[in-house]
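= Protein in question =
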Amino acid sequence: MKTNRRNFFHTITAGVAGLGITAASPIPSFIKNKPSNEAGDEQLLFIGDDIAIAKTVYGKVQGFKLRDILQFRGIPYGADTSGKNRFMPPQKPEPWTDTKPALWWGNTAPQQMENRYANAHYSFADHWNYDDVSEDCLKLNVWTPSIADSKKRPVLVWLHGGGYRNGNGIEQDGYDGENLSRKGDIVFVSINHRLGPIGFTDLSAVGGEKFKHSGNVGALDMVAALVWVKENIENFGGDPANVTIMGQSGGGAKVCILGAMPQTKGLFHKMVPLSGSTTQAIDQSYSQKLGEYVLREAGLSPAEMNKLQEMPWQRYLDVSYKAEAKLREETGGESMFRGGFGPVADGINLPREVFFSDNGGTATDVPMLICSTFHEWGMSRTSPEMENISEEKAIDFLKERAGFMGGLGEKAPEVYQAYANIFPDAKPIEIMTLVSSNRNGVVNTANAKLQQNAPVYVAWFGWEPNLYNGRMRAFHCLDICFWFNNTDLMLTHTGGGARPRKLADKMSSSLIQFMKTGNPNGGGLPEWDKYTAKEGEVMVLNDECELMNDPDREARATWQ
């Protein structure tokens, strides 16, 4: 009998209706094929009604299994922050009854998205992951080897970079938690939270009691995520009594912020800031003044505060950044880390004192591992002509600008020469980059943390990829994929292959040891001594790793 499309569908329809599938009209063999679950099957991805179903205190979530690691994406840890919830501490999500799909990333927090991919070279190297943006952004992601074996695994909570105004929990492929979860038998969590003016506009001076927390709601989001971990992570195979918080750049500063907040006591047990740290929040006299400028720029009176909550977020960002620019003009220009929209020393959520100065404070018993890179502030990646810059021009450049901070002025020659003495084989462009990427912030944070009871370990990452004719150097963000054993995921950072993989194996193993014990030794690096202010012990991370005693101390002293 000739088979055609109409006869095929007629047969299927009749069978469904129970009207005549008989031996005389057999079901074609290709319809009867069943999925194989044999051990030899090479299938990598599994999703189904009884696969990766986990409980939370709000309801069940469904993830998936990829290469034997379970993933859950976009789990709510807080309610939508728009409307009446804008500028307010995070609210708990509404419970749900059906199993919620946790299969895709949560929305990115509101931020300026225009021209995000405008620079082709940086888009190529970093290939940022951005999708939907909204105020319904309090979501987190989980990678875990198992949810059903009752094991209590160490937990890592990742805080993304981007200062306090950009980024998300999966913006780089190097943030992926699969490889570290598998290698260390750990649970990896990454989060999104409110950023910029949405997360850190201090309206306490113009809005009164109702808005007393408004300058820190983005930080309170992070606290809420840690509370979620405490309440739920056991259902994902993790140990709520062994949580490490880790972040890079702005995320490193967030680690320190959480370490100073009284609400986080007991919510984390190790801390790892990378290429970013802080020992103070923004002075509230500045943040409250900025709040006043925002209200004025919006053309509103204090009695109309609710209109700031109703304004579309794109419009609110525009108003806020215009207000910030006007205040900077009036005050002569604040550094991005001392002003602008960020965590506020309000005396309620964050202390007005220097962080870690209280020996009985939140992080007093929490070990710290802190790291920076040789060339945080790279200048010549896409400017080959800078490779041959003269010493004189390098010094002139440093007079005007030195990394993320302002210029060195007349101290530039002295500082330049001090670094040149320590690195005699370095070219002027390399000296300029080392000066601009100085370790002052790392050392200041490490020294502050020494006032508490727990040990501090310091690292300095110097590995350079063979990309862009070597002009990328040990740049800001490069070390992340080494700590997470993801060098073959971030090929545009490392080039991939055996050379970066060798260092990544040692660094990720040391991180896992630190998560488990509070001590990074035993991961394949040389013996790593605790940091002391006297000796300045630092693990230099490169193709060959070495523990050194504060090799750049004399150069840093010239900054005073």
